[in-house]
């Protein structure tokens, strides 16, 4: 993998939400989610710069279907900031489900960015909350570090990877999504739509990282 990617000093591996609740047995398990862990560990050895994101919801988060009587997980409803998919309770702060996958082994990761901790708004993207205005601070961090090209891996391709990729382009970074180190939920065609949107935004999609 490392010989094909050949990442440089201005490249970053951005590992999205490889957490227990998104893997086998988790509250919001992504099909095949566990399969990405070994690939990501191997990829990470080629990068001097690695950043991890972690979904980090308070109990009773507004995106949880349990907070909206009459609604079920995967329903869509309008919240003050727009349309929101409702989810099972997942990645609750301090819970086992919110922990990073135990086999994820990237000791040299430089930052863990937690997102989704505001109770009133969800956060798919590593750059912005779902209101599309409130920044996480990641763009400024990357600029101050002189990082210019982002390689995205993790879960789920059609949600948090997808939104992070679009916002990375929106912020002026080169973005590459390594699809074989991602897995998607693919709810009602969401994966095809996400891939199309990423291509349209100028995201490079690689099927095989090595």
Overall pLDDT: 96
Rg from alpha-carbon coordinates: 16 Å
Record field, number of beta strands: 8
Major sheet: 6 strands, parallel
Measured between the Cα atoms of the first and last residue, the distance is: 4 Å
Query: What is the H-and-E element order?
Result: HEHEEEEHEHEHE
The secondary structure category is alpha/beta
Summed up, the helix count is: 5
Low-confidence stretches: none
Biggest sheet, spatial arrangement of strands: 5-2-1-6-7-8
Indicate the percent of residues in helices: 10-25%
What percentage of the residues does DSSP assign to strands (E)?
A: 15-25%
Shape: globular
Labels describing this entry:
210 residues; alpha/beta; 5 helices; 21% strand; globular
Describe the protein in words.
This protein is α/β, with parallel strands linked by helices. Helices cover 22% and strands 21% of the residues. It has 5 helices and 8 strands, in the order H-E-H-E-E-E-E-H-E-H-E-H-E. The strands form 2 sheets. A 6-stranded parallel sheet has the order 5-2-1-6-7-8. Strands 3-4 form a two-stranded antiparallel sheet. The chain is globular, with a radius of gyration of 16 Å. The relative contact order is 0.20. The mean pLDDT is 96.
